[in-house]
Amino acid sequence: MIQSFRAKIARLPRTLQMCVALLCGAIGGLAQEPYSIPGTLLVCLCAGFFLHAGTKNHWHAARTGWLFGTGYFLLCLTWITEPFMVDAARHGWMAPFALVLLSAGLALFWAAAFGVARAFGSSWALVLTWPLAEISRAYIFTGFPWAMPPQATVDVVAGQALAWVGPHGLMLGLCFAAWGIICVGHWARWGLLAASLGVLIAPVPNTDIALTDHTVRLVQPNAPQHEKWDADKFPVFTNRLLDATAAGGAPDLVIWPETALPYLARHAGPVFAAAAERARGAPVVTVCSVTRTANTSTVWWLCKPRNCIAYI
251: Cβ–Cβ under 8 A, 6 or more apart, which residues? Predict the structure, then answer.
């Protein structure tokens, strides 16, 4: 049945074949928020292996993977247009370009996965290259791991594997299941299909989780976006952070928002010292901007090129 269906796809005009790849990828987007239909993720992955098996060479496979990925990311990343709607009259025209170009760019990782797998001559290679493409997407150019397929599983039984093997390990398992459904024998195929759908549809059982006596204080300076980088407002928002940190009883952990401080980390020593004093022995964690790594007795930060985690 699968072979005959693949032959019918192959006889379609090239334009319709491209539309099929886009549509199959978009089906996978239904697994992510706000649609949250995780069973469609299995349909998407199986469609990917099905289409890959019908490609003629590595260039054909790469084009199929690119179209497939573009369809997937177009549906998953619609939220990227929302910031442009804050001032739609001025910025709204940019939203379609942002969505289409970002989706097409991210799909290049999937194109590489499909093309390299076809170069090895077997769909089995896609079981490895597809997760490797997702790992690359999570780290290259500082990474953009949003819309990773395993993220759709957090509310179902399959998502429990995230605690043990992480998203990349789960991606490997999902790809193996999809490959088996498309490429192995009749009885094994139906068994894999039933098991895979089961863990992607069954919700995580509700269980009562015992709370501890620890207190985590989340601090928000309530800074309007248009005033956040106003130098005259810097002391106002910084004092709000410090006052909220000191409010009430002593917490066990204080968390400030990302870029809550309008200063580079190397210039924020006095603020770090004040935060440590107001926290009364509790650690304070935030994300701030840096231009170099550093390690002092007051604060330790683990740096990326622009942002860092500050542990005070």
Answer: 215, 216, 217, 279, 282
Query: Nearest-CA neighbor of 200 among 238, 173, 223?
Result: 173
Instruction: Please state whether beta strands 216-218 and 300-303 pair in parallel, antiparallel, or not at all (unpaired).
Output: unpaired
Taking the CA atoms of 178, 183, 185 and 190 in sequence, report the sign of the dihedral they define: positive
Give the other-Cβ count within 10 Å of 134's Cβ.
22
Distance CA 256, CA 223 (A): 13
Token pair for residue 194? 């039933």
Burial class (CB in 10 A: 0-12, 13-18, 19+), 52: buried
Task: State phi, psi for 285 to the nearest 5 degrees.
Answer: -120, 135
- Mean pLDDT, range 105-129, rounded to an integer: 94
Residues 250-289: tens digit of each pLDDT: 899 999 988 788 887 778 889 989 999 999 989 999 887 7
- The alpha carbon torsion through 271, 274, 275, 276 (nearest 10 deg) reads 130
Strand partners for 264: 289
CA angle, 60 then 63 then 69, to 5°:
140
**Helices then strands, each counted (H, E), the chain:** 11, 5
Instruction: Write the CB contacts of 44 (distance below 8 Å, at least 6 apart in sequence).
Output: 24, 25, 27, 28, 29, 31, 72, 149
Give one DSSP letter per residue of 51-106, joined into a string: HHHT-SSHHHHHHHHHHHHHHHHHHHTGGGGGGGGTTHHHHGGGHHHHHHHHHHHH
Cα separation, 296 vs 58, whole angstroms: 52
Sole residue written with tokens 């005959």: 4
pLDDT digits (tens, 9 = 90+) for 203-216: 988 877 788 889 99
DSSP bridge pairs for 216: 253
